[in-house]
Amino acid sequence: MCGIVGYIGTKPVVPVILNGLKRLEYRGYDSAGIALGGGESGLSIRRASGKLRNLEALLADDPLRGDYGIGHTRWATHGRPSETNAHPHRDCSGSLVVVHNGIIENYRALKEELSAQGHVFLTETDTEIIAHLIEEENTVARCNEDIDIPLEEAVRRAVLKLTGAFAIGVISHEDPGKLVAARSGPPAIVGFGDNEYFLASDVPGILHYTREIVFLQDGDLAVLTKSGVRFSNFEGKPIVRSPQHISWDPAQAEKNGYAHFMLKEIYEQPRAVRDTLAGRLCNASGVIELPEINVSPETFQSAQRVLIASCGTSWHAGLAAKFLLERMARIPVEVDYASEFRYRDPLVSGSDIGLLISQSGETADTLAAQAEMIAKGSQTVAICNVVGAALTRKAVGTITTNAGPEIGVASTKAFTAQLAALLAFSLYAAQSRGTMTPEEIQALSQDLLKLPALMETALRSCQPVCESLAEIFANASDFLFLGRGIHYPIALEGALKLKEISYVHAEGYPAGEMKHGPNALVDETLPVVCVATKDIHDPTSVLKYEKTLSNIQEVTARGGRVIAIAVEGDNEIAKLVEHTIYVPQAREVLLPLIEVIPLQLLAYHIAVKRGCDVDQPRNLAKSVTVE
C-alpha cells in the first residue's frame, strides 16, 4: 500500500521524485523518505515521520544532490510510524538502499539467519532485511566466486529467498547509475520518457512525465539506466516487455480548483459513468457486445452460478450486482468478501463464472479469491479501473471502468463506474440467457445513456442540501443507514463513506431488520439515513417503498431523526421525516448510481465540518496490496 517513485534521467531528481510521491501519498502517509545516488557522498538519504510535507521541509533545510534516486511514502505494516522505520533502508555498510511495498512473511527467519552472520538491524521493519540480504549475496559471491556481482544479480538472488508480497526499488553506490526493481505481488510500473526512465507503484506517480508504461508482472526484474531498461525474470532469463499507452489526462489527477480530491471525484462521476458505458450498450442492431470479457453466450447459458468476490466499496458494488444479475439474467449469485472466500474452502466448479471487482486490480485478497476460483476450474472476469493490473492479466476477460485515476482514499467515482460496468455485464448475461427481450434490452440501454445527465442533476440539487445537513449533524456520534433490496448495498456504502472520512460510527442495515435489534439504538440523538427511492413504474419497487415507509414510521415513533433520500415529486415522505434529499426519478436498477451521490456528499461535508483529512483518512490506504 506504500508509494514508490524512482527516476533516472536528465531532470533534477528531487523535484521529480517529490512530485511523484505527492501523487501517491494516498497510498500511505505515515512517513516518507528519499535516497539519491551519484552525488559526492555516494548515497544520500533524507527521511521524516508524518506526511510528505515534513520531508519537503527537511530537504529545504538540508538539500540532496545526485543523478538518480528512489523515494517512498509509507503505510505502516511492520513497525510503528517513525523516522527510524521510514524508507529507504540501508544495509550494514551503507552501500545500498531499498524501498519496499508489501509484507515479507519469512522476515523473522531471515533476520535470525542474517543476525547470526553478523548483520545488525536498526529498525522494526521487515524491509530492512531485504537490504541486508542483498548485501549478504554480494558478500557470498566475493567469498565463493571471487567476483563482485552486478546489483541486479544480487537482487535476483535475494528475492528468490523472500516469501510474501513485495515490490522493491534498489540503488547502490558500488554499482552506480542503476536502479533495480522487482515485483512479486504488489504493483510496480516502469515509465519510458525521452532519455529518462521512471519507477512507480501506480500510474499517477509518473503520469505528468510519461504515458508509456510497462506494468511489471509477478516474477519480473527491471534494470533502469540512462541508456534504457532491461527486463528479466527471477531466474535471470531476459524477457521482453513492451510499453502500453495510458490514455489518462494528467489534469485528471489534479484538484482543478476543488478543495479536495474526493469532492472533485464525486463531481467526475457522470463523466466516469459515461466513459465506462461508451461503446458497450446496444449498437444499431440492438445487441449488447462485450467481446472484452471473452465469455461466450453459450457459457452464460450453461452457467449455474456467478460467484462474486471483492473488498470494501467494491463488495458493495458486488452486492448490488447480485440484485441486478438475479433480476435481469435469472442466474443465482453468491457474493463473498474476498478476504473470507478461500478460507471457507468454497464450492466452485467449471460451470460457475467468477466475477472479481477491484478499483486497482492489485488488491491482495481479491487476487487470492481469483486464484482460488481458477484453481477450482472457474472462468473469471475482472472489473477493474487499471489497464494491465494483475487481476486483469489472470482473468479470461475484463470490463475496464474508465473512471480515470482516483486519488481520494475513499472511493466514489470508481464505485459508480463499477456499477455501470456491472449493469452492462448484467445486460449481456440477460441477452445471452434470453431472459430479457431485445426490446427490453434496447429500452434499458437507452435509459442508461441518460444516466449521466440524471447524475449531474443530482449533484446540482443535492450539494446545497447536504452541506446544510452537515451543519446540523456534524457532531452526531452515531448514524444508522437503511435500505431495501438493491438500495441496501447503497445504504452500506453510505455508512462506509461516513465512517471512513469523518470517523463517525455508522452502520448500514436492511430496513426490514429494524425490528430484529437496531430499533434498540433509536432515540432522539440518532440520525437515521433512509434510502427510500422508488421506480413509480415498477410495482415491486413501489411495494418495497411502502414497506420502507413503515420502517421510517418505526424510527420516528421512537424519536429518531430521519434523513430520507427520495425521488423528486414524492411529497408523501416529506410529511413523515425531518429532512428529505431529492434525486431524479429513474428505473429501479439505475437508482443506486443516483442515490449514492447525496450519501457521498453528506459524508464529505460532515468530515469537512469535523476538520478531518478527507483525502487521507487515518489508518487507511488507497490500495490494499497485502493481506
From TrEMBL:
Which compartment or compartments is the protein found in? Answer: Cytoplasm
> What gene name does this entry carry?
glmS
Q: Which PANTHER family match?
A: GLUCOSAMINE--FRUCTOSE-6-PHOSPHATE AMINOTRANSFERASE, ISOMERIZING, GLUTAMINE--FRUCTOSE-6-PHOSPHATE TRANSAMINASE (ISOMERIZING)
Give the protein's function.
Catalyzes the first step in hexosamine metabolism, converting fructose-6P into glucosamine-6P using glutamine as a nitrogen source.
Per UniProt, subunit arrangement is: Homodimer.
Q: Per the UniProt record, which EC number(s) apply here?
A: 2.6.1.16
Biological process annotations from GO: amino sugar biosynthetic process; carbohydrate metabolic process; fructose 6-phosphate metabolic process; protein N-linked glycosylation; UDP-N-acetylglucosamine metabolic process
Q: Does the keyword Cytoplasm apply?
A: yes
Q: Which GO terms describe its molecular function?
A: carbohydrate derivative binding; glutamine-fructose-6-phosphate transaminase (isomerizing) activity
Q: What is this protein called?
A: Glutamine--fructose-6-phosphate aminotransferase [isomerizing]
NCBIfam families recorded: glmS, PRK00331.1
Reactions the enzyme catalyzes: D-fructose 6-phosphate + L-glutamine = D-glucosamine 6-phosphate + L-glutamate
- Give all residue intervals belonging to the Glutamine amidotransferase type-2 domain: 2-227
Coiled-coil annotated residue ranges, if any:
none
Q: Where is the SIS domain?
A: 296-435, 469-617
Q: Which GO terms describe its cellular component?
A: cytosol
Query: Gene3D superfamilies from the entry?
Result: Glucose-6-phosphate isomerase like protein, domain 1 (3.40.50.10490), Glutamine Phosphoribosylpyrophosphate, subunit 1, domain 1 (3.60.20.10)
UniProt organism field: Terriglobus roseus
- Keywords on record: Aminotransferase, Cytoplasm, Glutamine amidotransferase, Repeat, Transferase
